[in-house]
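hey m, so remember when u said the tokens were messed up on ur end? i reran from scratch. heres the input so u can diff it against urs
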Amino acid sequence: MVWMAIAAVVAGFALYVSKRPMDFRVYHYGARGVFDGTRPVYGPASGLGWPMHYRYPPLFLLLFAPFAWLPLGASAALWLMLKFVVLIFLVRAIWNKLPPAEGTTAWLVPLLFAGPYVVQEFRYGNAQFFVFALSVWSLLLVKEKPVLAGAALALAIAIKVWPLALLPFLLLQSREAAKERSPGLTAGATLFRRFAASIVLFTLILTILPSLYFGFRGNLGLLGEWFNQEFATQTGEEEIWFPSQSLRGVMMRYLTSIDYSHVPDSNYRQVNITGLSPTTVRTAWFVASAAIYLGFLVLTYRRGGSSGWIGPALAFCLIALLEPFTQKYALVILLFPAIVAGRLTTNRMARNLIYVGIGLVWIQNLIPGSTAQRWMQVLGLDFAAALPLTVALGWVSFRPASAVTTYSSSRHILVTPE
């Protein structure tokens, strides 16, 4: 009965998406245009045209080709149903890796916190969820199947850049896991090398693979175009108007004066409290983000991976907060941290912070109207919601060892209540 209800919901959602494809249209029109020679791969004329232009490496075109062959509506529906299948298997795999959950809080927290972001991402039809799923699979498999874990992470990196930020942490995790699994230095080093080598090998193969269609020089040229386009987007000033929910976006809106009169959507409001130059703010963001993530890696190294699954969850939160641009649907990557956080509510401080985050998420879902939604995006309510979740995970992860006990088995984390 439950599965029939789920199937009915999925079918209804698929029908809705098939009639209102959003970001998915960029992939579909862009891929068709490339394959029939009517559109360039990159530039303002790709995809649907700026600002809905194509922004993925050449490999994604080949992966998306089967969907491009289908009509837009059918392709969007199939894309959505595939996401639901992946979601079910992914949540089940995460759940089985974490400690046994008692009560309803363990599943209510991820449902209430991450559920709206999952729905948003599925509605837009973006590729972010698949990249997130591959990254989590890599994390789950690194201790038992390092080569497969490396292949999963390599595929995620070959589609989007942000999984690269997980690489130092995952390498550290694999090293610590090897020590736990095999105290001998030789065995531990072998596991670590297999994981690292598989990432390099599969990333190289996947990067060269589009040469089968575009030719070796053509593929290199496209990679250069993609890099130049994304480097300008991520580090430049052309798109600082977009209400990104990352630290950079929030800093830009509060610390610079943004002219919304010459951008695709001029209905956003000014919230700046000062008028610093975008270059100054961008530099401050880069220094702050690098210091925060480096500090996280150093603390993780000193703890020797003793925070169990909390550390990986914290890594996903930091990526969402610190990357250059974080669109609302991109916060689907908070699903894994939210599942982990659902088991931390025995800690009073963590529980209160998590509930604050849930409240901020639902404020946006309960207040209707495009004007109100734009106002909340400019204020950075999604950033504000992700922040207490991040602090809660950090509070538990880096507390004294007497407060957090981690068993040698990777399946168990014990957080003693205050």
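this time it looks ok to me. Residues 401-418 have pLDDT under 50 and may be disordered. if urs says something different then somethings off w ur setup not the seq
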